[in-house]
Design goal:
Blueprint (H helix, E strand, L loop, with lengths): L3 E6 L4 H13 L5 E9 L9 H32 L5 E9 L2 H11 L4 E6 L4 H6 L3 H8 L5 E5 L9 E5 L12 H9 L3 E7 L7 H13 L5 E6 L5 H11 L3 E8 L4 H6 L3 H8 L4 E5 L4
Parallel strand pairs: 1-2, 1-4, 2-3, 4-5, 6-7, 6-9, 7-8, 9-10
Antiparallel strand pairs: 5-10
Helix pairs in contact: 8-10
Length: 286
């Protein structure tokens, strides 16, 4: 069976390591190549002088060597802890911004999922959007991303909450990342619609009616959630109240008409506040 290619960016923090360990755990039964990526940038010194260039080169080499060493050490740890013959690890040390390094690697290696750790919410973080993960979700809109909250205690996903407002008719291809995760551990897909007090329009009913066809052969059900002032609050609240939910899933509509409809950056808010891993998969607009 063809191996899945999973990208695991790291800054060698415990937060990043938690996301790596979760990916290995989730894909335990699958043939996988895990690409461990560390992106680094060396600050520009005074490049006009020869000495500046030499110094810059020396600094670059020092940073690159440290990155290579740290990746080698991390892969050694992962290999000694993870004796799964279906899994292999590949280290990548790339001198570039994190967004560029992830984008290039995703295309070059045919990556199917990117796993990233998220830090918990704070008012300050939300103002500055100081999370690399949120920036990645915003920029890398062509590959599924799984954001893993810090301190998440691993649990297999009995249920995946797929939050949708039925504004988009999902194609079979779009739902592959979600269906793929559901099939890993025979998870039930709960299609969660946040009821904001408006009746479904004709196009929304059509979108809703196509989902049972898309999820044919998988356990699935519909759930209406009421009584919340924000969509993200409703999604995170529903997950908090239902312990069976191991993953939240949403389409990445950061740049689309959905965001204009909701007047709320739901993706960002859920990513900052989720208690369980959050799958964001690409929207394919016609």
């Amino acid at each position: 069976m063809k191996a899945k290619h999973i990208l695991l960016p790291t800054d060698f923090s415990t937060n990043a390591r938690n996301a790596i360990d979760y990916a290995i755990y989730l894909f335990e039964k699958e043939n996988c190549v895990f690409h461990i990526l560390h992106a680094f940038e060396v600050g520009a010194s005074n490049l006009s002088s020869t000495m500046g260039k030499a110094k810059d080169t020396r600094l670059f080499r020092a940073v690159k060597d440290e990155s290579d060493r740290d990746i080698k050490s991390l892969i050694g740890e992962l290999e000694s802890k993870n004796k799964n013959s279906k899994h292999s690890f590949n280290g990548l040390s790339i001198a570039d911004s994190l967004v560029n390094a992830i984008g290039r690697t995703t295309i070059d290696k045919g990556i199917q999922y990117i796993f990233m750790g998220t830090k918990g919410s704070s008012a300050l973080k939300e103002v500055f959007m100081g999370s690399n993960t949120v920036r990645i979700i915003q920029k890398i809109d062509f590959c599924p991303i799984i954001a893993v909250p810090e301190n998440y205690n691993f649990d297999l996903p009995d249920e995946i909450a797929f939050a949708t407002n039925f504004e988009h008719i999902y194609s079979e291809v779009e739902l592959v990342p979600l269906i793929g995760l559901a099939k890993l551990w025979d998870s039930k897909i709960t299609i969660v619609h946040i009821d904001m007090g408006k009746e479904l329009q004709a196009h929304q009913k059509t979108a809703k009616d196509t989902l049972p066809e898309r999820f044919f052969g998988l356990k699935h059900r519909f759930e209406e959630v009421k009584g919340h002032s924000t969509i993200s609050g409703a999604i995170n609240g529903y997950t908090h109240e239902n312990e069976n939910i191991g993953i939240i899933a949403m389409v990445n509509y950061w740049h689309s008409f959905f965001e204009k409809l909701t007047k709320e950056n739901v993706i960002k808010r859920v990513a900052f506040n989720t208690e369980v891993p959050f799958l964001i998969f690409p929207l394919i607009e016609p």
